[in-house]
Amino acid sequence: MPKLCLITVPGLEVRSDWRLVHDSLLDEFPQVADVLATTMKETILVVYEGVDGGDAGRWLDTVSETILNRRNSRSAREHLTRAGELTPQETGSRSPARARWVGFLK
Fold first, then answer.
1. What values do phi and psi take at 12, rounded to 5?
2. What would the DSSP string read from start to end of 23-62?
3. What is d(CA 70, CA 9) in angstroms, rounded to the nearest whole number?
4. 101 phi and psi angles, rounded to 5 deg
5. 99: pLDDT confidence band, cut at 50, 70 and 90?
6. How sure is the predictor about 52, in pLDDT bands with cuts at 50, 70 and 90?
7. Does residue 16 surpass a pLDDT of 60?
8. C-alpha span between 69 and 41 (Å, rounded)
9. Helices 14-28 and 56-78, packing angle to 10 deg
10. Which of 28, 29, 38, 69 is the residue whose CA sits 20 to 30 A from 82?
11. Would the pLDDT of 53 be above 70?
């Protein structure tokens, strides 16, 4: 029987980030059956098979890394200098807050 896990990730923009997060989780975790967008702010719903929350921490890391990589990619494209290099402020490590596991639904 499938299980559900709500994950809230500060900075997650469900409208624009969901497809990338969906694909990342399905590619990396065979027990993840689906990742659903929700109408709750910064929240996705993971549908999975197996042990209760066995990989929830890894799911959070993957979602956080996916969002951070997407932001850095956007930022890099938007802030190129004339020489084609990023300024020191633009390459700083201003990462989003870590994802926070909300809990399981049965």
1. -70, 125
2. HHHHHH-TTEEEEEE-SSTTEEEEEE-SSTTTTHHHHHHH
3. 14
4. -75, 130
5. very low
6. low
7. yes
8. 20
9. 130
10. 69
11. no
Write out the two tokens for 67: 């969002």
Residue with tokens 């694909």: 23
Residue 79 tokens, joined: 């802030």
pTM: 0.69
CATH top class, domain 3-78+97-105: alpha beta
Place of tokens 């956007």: 74
pLDDT of 23 above 90:
yes
Every domain of the chain and the residues it spans: 3-78+97-105
Residue 10 in tokens: 């500060």
Give the whole-angstrom CA distance, residue 23 versus residue 96: 20
| Dist CA 106 CA 104 (whole Å) | 7
User: Measured between alpha carbons, how far apart are the two ends of the chain, in Å?
Assistant: 10
Q: Which residue has the tokens 């549908």?
A: 47
Token pair listed for 25: 């989780």
